[in-house]
Amino acid sequence: MGTKTADETGAETGAEATTDEQKVSVAKTDEVTEAEDTTADDEITADHEDELPGAAQEEGPTGVGQGAGAVVSAALGLVSLTGSWIGTVAAARETLVGQLQTSSTATVAKQVKEVYGDAWQTTALWGGLFALLALVVGVAVLARPAFGAPGKPQAVWIKSVAWGGVALGVIGLLLAVLKYTGLLLDLPSAG
């Protein structure tokens, strides 16, 4: 339980033996190599800063809001064509109201109009509302660069998705008007 002397520390002998001075010089060499590597990386980064994308060079609008608006426009346009939960609920409500207001002695034409016609028009109304929203949001996204930072063009994918939303909105609005007026899939005649 005493202290160890220099001979008891397990000093190596032979070809693998190194002195303390050699160990220190190896450690210093490793530190110098690491320092040279980090300065070389800094120089490479500084040399290629002008090649980085514009977003990495300067702070400014990234277009995330415009991209989100374009996606919302396309989604609203799709909902206007396929139908929505709120449109289905409103149509079911109109069907129920039509059944309650129609007496059993009413003519078949009146029963068909009250039970099915109003529900059909309600579905068309909600589809038209979603189509109109898609159209407004899409046009707003497309018009936004005119009021934004000059010299910063809008990303191509944002324009494409916004135009898709506008197109779906126009088609949905047209179909909604045609359904509501009875020009497309009018109620069957009862007689």
Q: Provide the low-confidence segments as ranges.
A: none
**Average pLDDT number:** 79
The share of residues in helices is 55-70%
Largest sheet: none
Q: Measure the end-to-end span.
A: 116 Å
Fill in the keyword field for this structure.
6 helices; elongated; 191 residues; mainly alpha; single chain
SSE diagram, text form:
Elements lengths: L19 H28 L6 H4 L6 H19 L2 H17 L6 H36 L12 H26 L10
Protein described:
By secondary structure, the protein is mainly α. It contains six helices and no strands. It has helices at residues 20-47, 54-57, 64-82, 85-101, 108-143, 156-181. Helix 3 (64-82) runs antiparallel to helix 5, helix 4 (85-101) runs antiparallel to helix 5 (108-143) and helix 5 runs antiparallel to helix 6. 20% of the residues are buried. The model has no long low-confidence stretch (mean pLDDT 79).
Condensed summary:
This protein is mainly α and 191 residues long.
